Amino acid sequence: MLKTLHTVFTRKTHDGTTERLLQYSFSYFGLYVITGFLAKYFAKVLGMGGNTYTVYNTIGGMLICNLVVVLWGWYRFKSSDHTTFLTVRMPREFFYIIPSGICTAVIIPTTTLMYVLPISVMVAMIIMRASVIIISRVIDAIQIRQGILHKTVYWEENVAVVFALAAVSIKMIYVKSGDFNFIHNAAAMTILAAYLTAYSIRIYIFNYYKNTRRKDAIYDTKGFFAVEQIASTLAILTAGALLFYSVDLGVADPKSFGFQFKDSLVNTPALWKEGVLSGLPFGFAAFFSVFLFMFKGRTATFAGLVNRVTSLVAGTVATLVVWWLIAGQKPPALEDWFGLAAIFLAIYFMGRAEQKRACELARAHEIEPEKDTGTTCAPEAGGGAGR
Questions:
Q1: Which of 101, 202, 272, 315 is placed for a possible disulfide with 228 were both Cys, Cβ 3.0 to 4.6 Å?
Q2: How many angstroms separate the CA atoms of 301 and 141, rounded?
Q3: pLDDT-derived band of residue 386, with 50, 70 and 90 as boundaries?
Q4: Dihedrals φ, ψ of 82, to 5°?
């Protein structure tokens, strides 16, 4: 373990290895902690919270993402399969990467709207976190049936799903019956349906791209992210412009998202520059979030678990940091610690699954294992897998 961590923090690793997975996870974790802390700091200390903070934080995140993909040339998507569309020669993958970007453009505002629905924030967080874990497992089942995914979902991954869902759902015992009244609200259910549909399509596309690569085909996750990001940015800018010009501040409900969105841009807050800068860690976290979802050689179940479990642990740590550094804030509640214990159990089973998967990929020559990490693989992998 110590040799592995030494490699993770000191060396450049090979694509698809456990060490590369840990590098992405630690990076996502750190950025997520900073993002969580800044949201509380701006709201509780600087007095800039709610949708105003969200608007400028999102602007900063989108700016950094697009600057990176343009300045570093990631937008030059590498593909082994091209086609001609309307006289333009382009990678065939664009036909589903661009829709994935549009789904991202749906996910970003609906995530914000989930928090302003007639629904408790606790319920919103449970739905969003649990849905990604469940969707990822369902996507694997679908793609196995379709013959797209040829890997087995290990039983350890299924057990980890159970513990991760338990960690997310522990807070359900503290939810009041009135918190579920949103199911009778047409607007709320429409937003929730849009969020779940967009995430389902996006995760399916991630894994379709990953699982349909030939062994000699180029696997360009950076290019995928770039094209998806550009598509989502154009879609968000278009939707934002339509919303901006459709809202009349003189008659709109001040509590509505449309009013607060336009008001934050028309009546620019004093801390708008700081708000934009707060989006930098949020934007960088988006890179690692996508890279984890698309991690080479892993099932959607495993990749979705790594993504969500990392953010769950980071959320607890962010709460601790806020409690330590901002006066008057509450520490993590008892149920948060029980949830964290369940997460660590999920991580244990994920670690067992990862060890088996890494050995499987190494034997198939799909990845090049890191040297001198102390990790060994048996000549043949043990059974015990299930779909």
A1: 101
A2: 9
A3: very low
A4: -115, 160
